[in-house]
Amino acid sequence: MKINDIPVIDTDVLVIGGGTAGPMAAVTAKEQNPSLNVMLLEKANVKRSGAISMGMDGLNNAVVPGHATPEQYVKEITIANDGIVHQPALMAYATRSFPMIEKLDSWGVHFQKDETGDYDMKKVHHLGTYVLPMPEGHNVKKILYRRLRRNRVQIENRFTATRLLKDPDGKIAGMIGVNTRTAEPIIIRAKAVIMATGAAGRLGLPTSGYLFGTYENPANNGDGHAMAYHVGADLANLECFQVNPLLKDYNGPACAYVTGPLGGFTANAFGERFIECDYWSGQMMLEFFKELESGTGPVFLKLDHLAEETIQEIETVLHTNERPTRGRFHEGRDVNYRQRMVEMHISEVGFCSGHSASGVWTDETGATTVPGLYCAGDMASVAHNYMLGAFVYGQICGESAVEFVKSRSEPQLDEDFIIRELERIQAPMKVTDGIPPEQMEYKVRRLVNDYLQPPKVTKKMEIGLERILAVRDDVPQLCARDPHELLRAMEVQSIIDCAEMAARASLYRTESRWGLYHYRVDFPEQDDSEWFYHSRLFKDENGRMASGKRPIADYLVSLGEEKDAYRKMRVQKAANA
């Protein structure tokens, strides 16, 4: 197929990803300049796509006046991340958090309020108060979709982007992709691109072995991380894995944000609280891991001591929002919150700034190192973004993209690159007796579990990298019998990219940091003298994956005596028992 055989669609601003950040970015761009052509591309359907497809039960990082200040929030997140953050980006989020809550409230997103009509804030974090429940949060996607239609955003469902395009000057020029139902290729030429493709959730393998039984939305496989890398954008802190507490065998969040404010807590096998704070920091996960592996494990969510009306309130929220299968899972296991504790475990690893600090490098404007390319949500590098951070940075990126396209003429496409990419896309359809995508995906994700899962060991990671590269050598044998399998074949190549990134980034930082997220057994100490930097992963001039250091920007908020607060969260009674 030649480039002349493929339709080229022109737009001013292209948004890739229709979950949380993407729709907000698209709506914002149209609000800023209704005359612009704004397109939203989604590989599923925007009506039910992304990590909030079934809603959300609360905001985990709401900076509400009277309960917290932006400065307090920036300090909290900096401490929780062992100091490795870009504070200007955190401050940009923190100052715009409350206006975004008010905006969403005006759109009809319902947040819990107290008897006076004020937002009913709850404390879960170690230091501050930032949790705002959303007991009716099941309608978020419907509200976003209505806003997209009202603002006349052009929506293209069932298309997956495979590579980003650059013009001869190194600025973003659009994307090439493929229809997930027909396998027809598509080229979109754009003056600015906003990526909002979510976490790399299909990196590790769940203990069930089921490829799509992931903690994260399984559609979010890391293709955005891979595309950003291949177009020349920097990625940051990819060794800071996402590892979360979850319900054993269910692979959904244990929801300390819902149960904690109502009296539930994480406990050991004897029902004892062993950590002061259930906020999901790396240090909390390290304490969780230690307890899980100790003689007082496994670990449980303790609710059986609560009053009946409290348990009913918890069930109403947890069994109707975000993951409504939770109630059916408990019913099948004959688990009743009133009668016994609920067993917990640890999730597979992934890249997700929503819960940790790894992603495509972005500054406080959402800009990457490629001019005209912006990133928002779980794939961007702003630490502990969560849903509200995705909304805020979707808005910031929408504003930034509109400003960028003001002086941009129509980009020039690199036809040679497009032809090569077309060959890569179509190659699996031409292999008649090869490796099915699910087999290759299972293998590389099992390698991630076997060799990269923390606690990390140097020799194991070296072996893992060698084996991952061997899987890459088998890509020419990847086959696809239909357009759906072609989508999976494209996804598994991105998963291989992310697995290699995870190995190389983890080997590069020769210290331990972020608790369990980057705990290296043979380098167990944190080393600020050598490693008080963002790690940088990028494609070098020879096209190879390379690593380096990015300096930490000057702090806007000093940490003071609280800088080590997150390392002092273990309950001493449990520790000495």
Polypeptide structure, described:
With 577 residues, the protein is of the alpha+beta class. The chain has helices spanning 21-32, 70-80, 87-107, 140-150, 223-231, 256-259, 282-292, 308-318, 325-333, 386-405, 415-430, 437-451, 458-473, 483-508, 528-531, 572-576; strands at residues 8-16, 38-42, 58-59, 132-133, 154-157, 159-166, 172-179, 185-195, 235-236, 245-247, 265-267, 299-302, 342-346, 359-360, 373-375, 533-539, 545-551. Helix 1 (21-32) runs parallel beside helix 4 (140-150), helix 2 (70-80) packs across helix 3 (87-107) and helix 12 runs parallel beside helix 14 (483-508).
Give the gist of this structure:
By secondary structure, the protein is an alpha+beta fold.
